[in-house]
User: Fold this.
Amino acid sequence: MIDFTQYSLADFYDIADLDMLQRAKAFHEYLKDIHKNHHTHYRRVSLSGSGPTMRVADPYTGKEKEMIYMASNDYLNLTKHPKTIEAGKKALEKYGSGAGSVPLLGGTLDIHIALEKKVAAFKGCESAIIYTNGFGSNVGSISALLREGDVAVLDMLVHASIIDGCKGTHVEHFRHNNMKSLEKVLQKCQKKYRTKMVIIDGVYSMDGDICKLDKIVEIAHHYGAYVMVDEAHATGVIGQKGRGTPEYFNIEGKVDIVAGTFSKALGTVGGFVAGRKEIIEYLQYYSRPYMFSTAQTPQTAASLIEAMNIIENEPVLRKNLWDNIRYFRKNLLSLGFNLGNSETAIFPIIIGDDVKVRELCRELHEADIYVNAVQYPAVSRRLSRIRMSLMCNHTRQHLDTVLNALEHLGKKYNIMKASKGETADIA
Ligand SMILES: Cc1ncc(COP(=O)(O)O)c(C=O)c1O
Assistant:
């Protein structure tokens, strides 16, 4: 048995002298120790799907239990909206359960074209391409657009899929949301590379803060760089009409590439890239996860079109979400928790101690509250945290139950103001 308090996931990434099976076995021992201590906060099995509460198979007792679900990206709970479900059912009956081929070779259905047009219009762009997952969408589009002589200029907190997409090109980082640092990096890159592309998240997935997109576009264009924004956690959540970060900053049409996932507020799965028609057309023929992977299922495409209609026609869902965000935020801050720079539906409580984070998750699990543990190496050790996210249909009673539990545990573990409002940064 390996004492879990002494190790993290990073320790099993590579171990000198151990082959892959020996390494997997060492990791298995580590997981066994975590489980014995009720610190397994990953892969808890849901029996009811995403909602403000969720039936879960308790990994420790083997029994079912109802939990307040504070970890969904399904911000508007469109996974369960009667209209998205109905649209999916109809498409399933009309087209069958799959598209049958890759998009270039027979897998493009008319409902995919309708989805492409809907996404382009929703994002205020000329054209859009659809992928079957958001991760592949970023990897596939960036790797097709940026080659060896180019450079990706990344905010240091961008999503893993963006980092993986940049493996065939040069990469430079700038300090998180820091415009001076961005400018410095762009100055350095200006003459050195052919294509320069600044890539940022609209809303950062572990911190819940919003990128300074208006300033980023201004600075990037000044230095001849393109801008790509990943709208995974912004779509449906920010902007007057839920269209995301460009709408929030009133710069729709000025961002070169607007990417995102269908898996968060849109409630299904998949990804998109929207922009100029020539760029989108190029991706159709050069983006490997698009060309060599079977097209989106018809029922997903139909549910997605309906999801965007709902975002446009039912603003009350977004209003309820924001009422919840304001209420939860005000109360967490008044209890003295460190929420970093969070300003959206994503709430990190920064603790800076991996074992404490897992203990807290254990206690919350026992109190029937489902939160996520985010620890090293996903974030640096001094910024390990529990991460919660809100939905539009969490009730005040749900939120008060969570706030009461956190108040009690915050005192027990002495984690109020654990670190002083800092988020990750490079030296
Ligand atoms: C910012 C960001 N981009 C991309 C992805 C990948 O999206 P998907 O889960 O749809 O593959 C995620 C999420 O998980 C994300 O948070």
